Amino acid sequence: MQREEVVEYRSFDGAEVTAFLVRPSTSANSAVVVVHEIFGITDFIRNITRRLASLGYLAIAPNLYSRRANVFTEERITAVMRRFWSIPPERRASGEAVAELMRTLTVEEQEIVRELVVDRVKTEERMINDVVAAYNHVKETYGVSKVAVMGFCMGGGLAFEALTRVPFDAGVIYYGRNPRNLEDLAKVKGAILAIYAGEDPSINQGLPDLMRAVITYKPRFEMAFYPGTRHAFATEGGPVYNEAAAKDAWERTVNFLRKYLG
Amino acid sequence: MSSTGSAITDCFLTWVDILEETEKSKVGGGKGRMHRPTGKHEHKPD
Q1: Which domains does chain A have, with CATH numbers?
Q2: What number is the ipTM of this complex?
């Protein structure tokens, strides 16, 4: 029987990061680090983690909001997103417009905007380092021989970046942003499966550069592209869930993990 | 939406758009820009 628990590991800065861990019913030789979407550890992420354990992998989903888990809840993050509707779409990335909006928010909401929008570079680096620390924790603690990383949306971009920092054996990127420096693809040890939605302009505008980098640096790279779907199409229960595409992508994911993790 | 250069902020702003489009089209019954939600699933973003 699978066993679920919340564990803690020490990250790069000494902070304790909590993580949702599912152990498979049999002893695991491989592990998968699951990197969550912008909403944190949700039912969807827990279910993905359970599914991976049902395949025989030790699966662990770090909560990248651990340091402020009481503030960064799914409900509050969603509420803050709705507050952005008051800004015209073309100005939503503008520092001035965001600063104006900030003045109308609660202290907790301001903290969310500060972390996810204003101080994004710092936040991103901390989250990537937390994923790297999860890799080290899994290797040191659970006696597995191979480790993969899998990320969704925001977590896809973080997972892609983490692949360039530590020698994961494989990475599955669901609609994730490219690594900041595409030359870092040369450092990737593991195979990559990158999954994209057809209608996802902010992510897909990076694909031509990514393709050029793949041709130049030659990582083991597989790609699946789903026309007619949107960012987060695999999020079961979400507003843009596409069942057919999600099932196909999961089948590809399982085949890919079997190939590279065993 | 153009990229902000950050996986976090790009994702955040993409979700602002998705929620706006799907929730407003549910309330107003109007068309979304690209795809209307099917109504098959309750809105519960992850």
Answers
A1: 3-68+122-261 (3.40.50.1820), 74-119 (no CATH)
A2: 0.91
